[in-house]
Specification:
The chain is built from 14 helices and no strands. It is an all-alpha fold.
């Protein structure tokens, strides 16, 4: 029998999960926005505009700067979660068919599951690993076409993007969010660090920025406002309040949304195999949200996953095996 307290916790857990899921859903719009609205040949510039302005706005909203060791931690997390991730995704997308690149990126939950054992001291579970494999297979069925080609550099970049984001996600969970720092400020630290990392790289590789017309301006605004500022605030907020492996599997929503938009807006066809893949990937996402023991994931003290004396939105990382 579910007690009122347990019911309230389950509702709160579901609410946080759904809000966190909005981040990868918004990232799934990246392909259609990039191909239909943005000028070609400037992917790093798109990543820069997605990160740096959003980071500065988030800093202005949060009005909090890092203190002490958090200057270094914010820089590391910003480079992993944003600064390195965007170029690696770009290289993979340019050198591989989109389906192959998406499938390699979908391996991230498996990498997170492995890192959680080493970094977070979580117990590995066959169930999570099995559903992670199901998710990768499902995404592959959705997005890999019959003429998929493989390029070594592209494959390494795709695997590197999965590993980079997985490490960033795991370290974000390991270090948590410092007390008194809200989600906007926390996201702002990382977006700004990632944007500053991308700034010289963009100038060196792409040179002068492209001409920006109205459709491109709307595309950049969407990627920076929704896919950058809002998405990363929700993402990092969820990471500090939910089990890391549950959050990681939500990334599978991104290629699924991209495929659905391709079918709805670009006339791309989804056949029986793709629909089967959709079902497998969605099943993996749902299974990834289920707790180990049939109840909500809890801290050693028996309450929701949070640190003593903090609210769920400001909790540092859970560092025990009960997180997953």
């Amino acid at each position: 029998m579910t007690t009122p307290a347990a019911g309230a916790h389950l509702r709160g857990h579901l609410s946080r999960t759904l809000l966190t899921a909005l981040a990868p859903v918004s990232w799934g719009t990246f392909y259609v926005v990039t191909t239909e609205l943005l000028p070609p040949g400037h992917p790093l510039f798109a990543g820069l505009l997605r990160a740096l302005p959003a980071g500065l706005i988030a800093l202005a909203i949060g009005r909090t700067l890092p203190q002490g060791a958090w200057w270094g931690r914010a820089a590391v997390l910003g480079v992993l979660n944003i600064g390195l991730l965007f170029p690696l995704l770009t290289v993979a997308a340019e050198r591989l068919p989109g389906g192959v690149a998406a499938t390699l990126a979908a391996a991230q939950p498996l990498v997170v599951a492995g890192l959680a054992v080493v970094v977070l001291r979580e117990r590995p579970t066959v169930r999570r690993l099995a559903w992670g494999v199901v998710g990768v297979v499902g995404v592959g069925l959705v997005v890999i076409g019959p003429n998929a080609a493989f390029d070594l550099v592209g494959v390494l970049a795709g695997l590197g993007s999965a590993a980079t984001m997985a490490l960033g996600v795991t370290l974000t969970k390991r270090w948590g969010r410092p007390g008194g720092v809200g989600p906007a400020a926390f996201a702002g630290w990382q977006l700004t660090a990632g944007g500053l990392f991308l700034l010289p790289l963009t100038l060196l590789v792409e040179g002068a920025p492209p001409a920006v017309d109205l459709p491109a301006a709307l595309g950049y605004l969407w990627l920076g406002g929704v896919g950058g500022l809002l998405a990363f605030v929700l993402w990092f907020r969820g990471l500090t309040a939910l089990p890391v492996t549950s959050v990681a599997v939500l990334v599978l929503l991104s290629p699924l949304v991209a495929a659905a938009l391709g079918a709805a807006l670009l006339g791309q066809t989804l056949g029986p195999v793709q629909l089967l893949g959709f079902g497998l990937a969605l099943a993996s996402i749902v299974a990834g949200q289920l707790p180990r023991g049939g109840g909500p994931d809890r801290s050693p003290g028996g309450g929701p996953e949070r640190s003593p004396g903090s609210d769920p939105d400001r909790s540092p990382a859970c560092r025990t095996s009960s997180c997953g």
